[in-house]
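Write out the 3D structure for:
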Amino acid sequence: MSDMITAELVRLGVEPPGDKLATIGMMADVIASTGRAEKDGLEAAMLDRESKFATGMPGGIAIPHCRSEAVNEASLGFLRLATPVDFGAKDGPADIVIGIAAPDESGSAHMKLLAQLSRALVRPGVVDSLRAAGTAEEVAELVMGVVSPPAQKPAGGDAASASGASASAGGATAEEAAAGGETGSAEAATTGADSDKPVLLASTSCPTGIAHTYMAAESLENAAKDKGIELITETQGSGGIEPFKAADIARAGAIIIAADVGISGRDRFAGMPLIESGVKRPMTGDEAGKMIDEAVAAVKDPNAKRVAGTGGGSAASSEDESGVGWGKRIQQALMTGVSYMIPFVAAGGLMMALGFLLGGYDVSFVASDVVSNYSITNLPDQISYVQNDAQMLTERSGMLLYLGAVCSYLGSVGMGFLVAALSGYIAFGLAGRPGIAPGFIGGAVAVFVDAGFLGGLVTGIFAGLIALWFTKLKPPRWLAGLMPVVIIPLITSLVVGALMLILLGRPLASLMSGLQNGLTGMADSGLGVLLGILLGLMMCFDMGGPFNKAAYLFATAGLSAGVLGSNETPFEIMAAVMAAGMVPPLAMALSTTVRRNLYTAAERENGTTAWLLGAAFISEGAIPFAAADPLRVIPSMMAGGAVTGAITMALHVGSQAPHGGLFVFFAIQNLFGFVLAVVAGTLVAAAIVTLLKSRAKAKQDKEAVAA
């Protein structure tokens, strides 16, 4: 790992090209210039990460980071800016920017080294040394000295673990922690601690598990050390989890959870006093010290907020604890279900599309037969199948048909999990781990009774609410251990399954059938254009929000139901949704290119990035523009999306892939119509938003002259 950062990856005293998005583009260019990554892919991955979670840190530093297939070799890029750039930190802009680029399949060694860097950057003196360094070679040496200090590595452990042990031990060195046994052990943790003060636990986690997870832990550890408090940390990041020991949990008085995603194993802390926040709070000002003080006070407070459930592993606190109403919690659970479902859709749908590319348009009719009865050494000839009461032969034969059938079959298996995954993870979003099995079982029953994704939504909500109710019970100690793994899944599955089979299955199936027939009827009777307009409006209204996700879920659910049939309507709906979702970022990119004087320098940089985001069907690329000027941007984008949706349906454009935009051109039926629809919608949206902004600017100029 000695060349993770070299002088070629360091730039000192550079003038930033614009806002943080442009600076991230510069970082991607620096890393790509060494051949360690493909620039466009790395930049897109870093920007996507930044759009979800700002990477600015206290102290004038920023750590844009990602894991991506575009990265060939784990790398650290370094920019020391002549003019600081705002990366979203509360204490001001950053002049030190360290980019972390990790391969998509990064080994644990890479992740642990990156975790060590994240921890080190919140320690006094480290950033000052980086600002004072005179040469690129000196910076590279300083960073590598922080990432992998040989003298501080415990035998059989990793540097990040040693750091955690040192802080939790109230000042013990890494060698002393290693000598005491495992990181976080009771023996090491008691070194230097005041026995009259409580033992605290802290668990941290961020969405990607690369930087914020470890920096939050380090901040809490430093604050605990300053106060003489024994703190034991568990970082649930990409470098793996070093779980709390049972003995440490047993003697702890309270737990701090700083996380933006649900932490695993939450049921271990049931009933323990709880201090909870997002992962950024401990890294802001003196908030880490305040959290330590709050946790100490909670130990002595009988009315303190506590971790919910008994063995429940709930992914969220109760309503009283979190202050979030049931409507919001159910909405969050639905978004959780959709989020976890999308990988099944993407993997399954793209494999299906690849199957069509290799095996021909009719491969899905014979995929199961080919996979079962043929092999790579026994290739099939053209296979007969029946369609619309007519005997047909497949378009292709031999190796192409066989490989296409394999891809098609694998894709159909993946898509078959769509409803079950949606239901299972909705239940998980409400009840945590005990909800997963009942949710999956309920989703499978929904498929069995033909209730489709509507049934999956219902079973997921029911399973989550029932399992959550069980987690609130306080059973005898001898029964508590069986609750989350046996009793809750068993009873909840029985209740939800019985409800679907006996009461709800047929009505939901009828509703789903009516919906599907209605869609087919709209398309067949010439009302498909109206459907396309509606889908286009939904995709462009909130660009990644609930309406956008609802339209996408509707399309992917229809795609799942239609991939094995001859009905083209699901493909057409998927194409309308994907094409309309591409319009907002492309339209804003075009507007910022044509009328640059209407936009700030930062917006022009965002517009440059939006070209790639739009082409890849990442609607969120237009959110910065919509947030800055919603009354002009959102209606304009909706108009463009409606035009695009109408054209795709009118021209019977179809998409066998659920995601990817122009990059899955091979899976688009009527590619010319698809491109025409996207271009037309982009032109309409860009023209309207440019006109509205031009009038607003002219009015401002007139008022300025009058003044």
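The domain at 7-107+117-148 is CATH 3.40.930.10 (Mannitol-specific EII; Chain A).
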